[in-house]
Structures are given as C-alpha cells and as structure tokens.
Write a structure and sequence with these properties.
The protein is mostly helical. It has one domain. It contains 3 helices and no strands. Helix 2 packs across helix 3. 7% of the residues are buried.
Length: 69
C-alpha cells in the first residue's frame, strides 16, 4: 500500500512540473528574435493577428515547441 503522504508529495511534484512546462511554453512563444508580446499571443492564436505574427507563431515557434515536447 502506498502511503498517503507519498501520494500527496507525488501529486504536488507532478503539478509543479506541469506548471513549469506551461510557463516555459508561454515564454518560448513570446520570446525570440522578433518579439510577440503576451497581449498579442492569444489574439494571434485565435486568428486575429497580423500576417507577420501568425507566420512567426505558426511556422516557427509552435512547431519548435511541439517537437521539443
């Protein structure tokens, strides 16, 4: 039988690592040679960005992040 303290610790570690992965993905999509601010990230994801923003996000950064994950 696994002790409940060990299960709590494992859940906390998995939650913390998942949060770190999400933060890293957000930072990776916003930073680079051509900046894409966090305020412009979500509109661009939903199709309301400029051609340059959509090209950078969908052709360069998201494929790189997906391959890395």
């Amino acid at each position: 039988m696994i002790q409940s303290a060990l299960v709590k610790k494992q859940r906390w570690i998995i939650g913390a690592l998942t949060a770190l992965i999400i933060i890293t993905v957000i930072i990776g999509t916003c930073s680079g040679y051509s900046n894409l601010s966090l305020g412009r990230l979500f509109p661009t994801l939903f199709g309301h960005g400029t051609f340059k923003e959509e090209f950078i996000l969908f052709s360069v950064r998201l494929p790189r992040i997906i391959i890395t994950l």
